[in-house]
Amino acid sequence: MGKGGAISESVLKKILLSYTYVAIWIFLSFTVIVYNKYILDKKLYNWPFPISLTMIHMSFCATLAFTIIKVFKLVEPVSMSKELYLSSVVPIGALYSLSLWLSNSAYIYLSVSFIQMLKALMPVAVYSIGVLFKKEGFKGDTMLNMLSISFGVAIAAYGEAKFDPWGVILQLGAVAFEATRLVMIQILLTSKGIQLNPITSLYYVAPCCLVFLFIPWIFVEYPILRDTSSFHFDFVIFGTNSLCAFALNLAVFLLVGKTSALTMNVAGVVKDWLLIAFSWSVIKDTVTPINLFGYGLAFLGVAYYNHSKLQALKTKEAQKKAAQADEEEGKLLEQRDGEGIGEKRDQA
């Protein structure tokens, strides 16, 4: 096969790998969400203890991360001082524990489909908090886009057949804490040149989450669990559920590392539609036409936001390449001028 054929094969292989990473992430994210709903829902497995479930996940992930880093030494730990850990990792761990606690709690009160619709507010929350902390510049057209997403979610909420105010408050709180966590990662870690992959992230953050979750667990869930003599820990259910949660972290690393964060955002939209369809067809959650119309508006807003981010990245990349080309051209001209001066001196 000729050179052109070899290039085509290489491009095809990259495309197939990218789609494979996307499919793995969608499958695992889908599985974790549905599995958590199954465990927490009172009509299904009936174990409505979101703090306990989150603590099981964090214990499992922290143990595996410790084993991979310290025992098998497959991943290098990040060099981090005690002061940096307390000032940067601990606040992120606190935000992450709150986000997981509230998001898992929402599954007790809301349908899977409606939760995905509410999650469409994530770009709104990230942008707003980014502007608040001066990590994003305020732009009128972007804010108008954010308002269109919010309007779409509001219509979807209006059309929700099983609207639960407490469940909505929990999910919106989870979105707010998760958005703050993402912005704080940029401020506290990325700006200091610290890059954590999912293994090192779990190694440092999961123990923090456990400590923060232990405080509300003692007062909220432990007394109920202590008095529930009928409960027996199901290692198969909770073990496979925790394994899926750990695998999802690895899938995020693969997807973002091999493609881009934008690809994950686009894949997330596909996953949300699949979850809505699954929730309606399999779990038999009620999805109304107003639900779909509102989420459709929010979806268009999110799609436009992702498109704008992609265009901005392309422009930035083009400017970077142009600057590099100008710099190289300038060096060549200097080199030629130097050679010309040298020749004149030799002739003299």
Automatic annotation (TrEMBL):
Provide one Gene Ontology cellular component.
membrane
Question: InterPro entries per the record?
Answer: Sugar_P_trans_dom (IPR004853), TPT_transporter (IPR050186)
Primary location class: membrane
Keywords annotated in UniProt: Membrane, Transmembrane, Transmembrane helix
Q: Where in the cell is it found?
A: Membrane
PANTHER family (UniProt xref): SOLUTE CARRIER FAMILY 35
Q: What is this protein called?
A: Uncharacterized protein
Q: What organism does this protein naturally occur in?
A: Punica granatum
